[in-house]
Amino acid sequence: MEQNFDLKNYISLSDFEAVERLSAKVTDAVRVDADGFDIFDVSLQTAQVLATEIGIGDNTIMLALLCPYVQTGLLSIDSVEHEFSAEVAELLRNVEKVKGFAITLQNLKDQAFSNFIISFAHDIRIIIYFIAEQYVRMKYAGKHCEDVKKRLAQESKAFFAPLAHRLGFYEIKRELEDLSVKYLDPDVYHKIVNDLQQTRRERDEYMENFVKQLCERIDDIGFPYVVKWRTKSINSIYAKMQNKGIGVDEIFDLFALRIILDVPEKLEKAACWAMFGITSSVYLPNTLRTKDWISKPRPSGYESLHTTVLGPDNHWVEVQIRTKRMDEIAEHGQAAHWRYKGIKSNDEQLNDALLSIRTALEQNRSIDDMVHNLSNELYKDEIFVFDNKDQLHKIPAGARIIDYIINIAPEPDWVELFSGANVNGEFKTLDTTLKNGDRVELVVA
Length: 445
Hints:
Number of helices: 20
Helix content: 40-55%
Shape: globular
Radius of gyration: 25 Å
Oligomer: single chain
Structural class: alpha+beta
């Protein structure tokens, strides 16, 4: 995070002065939440992440700044509408609604839950705010108790990191995953960090030399290409250690190199295999670790040719060979896959919208107009409801309680067992239409 962050550069002077006046009302008694975080410090750090790392507009920054004042009762949402703007007030109302759900780890692991949260929030900026706030809490969770650290880590790993990836916040996603390892398995985390720090300069020099020798041969064939390389994330290294029961020094592909070719689609396979041949002629491949996801792509649409080669000084390097189209699918997921292949899905609109938002953010364009009431357009045909065990169910928009029962029943005659349901604590008959986010507890006849 930037050390010289100046809030006045990101919001209007009148809003800045109003927040300054509000800060005078804050006392020590209202600063700390149940997890031990100073909520006003968290809100300022969240605003900084939104402004400098994500690059989103001032209304979302004001949402972050004003949340703790609303949370502690120092400011009403009606006052926000009067003193700031109706749009920020509406964002705050929706944040309060989302925070009203009992968020269980089981739901966080369910892809449908993230779709529900996006639909219920009514505005993707709220989701971006939650990601930024979680990121800040993870960054500063080290000084808090073990239960808090572990809970935040589990939430981040199951929900916030994948959601950050869908929006294209790759560095935030990577750090959320790495910090999750730090809090869930600190001994192994610190060992990985120490091992990587001790060899960082040598690794940089090694990869520069590795790439130089390879590129000298690639240039001969005349294909336009780019080369990217990195050390795998701590989370990736940790996952390999756990899955294979090995140490850092036993990981074959601690180094990862990506060669991206810019060729027409009809030449893709031939070009990738030609590149594989060149790579194998420069460095000895481990034939047991060649993975061909070009001939048979993964179900997600991921296409790439992976090989692990023995570089200078007997170090193993993973080389990923793919085309520009394949790389876009790898980075942007199903949305790009559908665009190229014409495949349809219930979540196509959502993923296309998230891709548009991601592209706008990458190009430093404002997304405020793009994301306003986005979910109202995305989820016209379906809603999400919770049962009495906090499990999430997706049903058609306009569905009644009787339709919900039919949707979840193992047998058709289940309907006869119930007289209605308690919806958000109030009894409703079988013909009552359900709304997005309703909690439904069936009542036996």
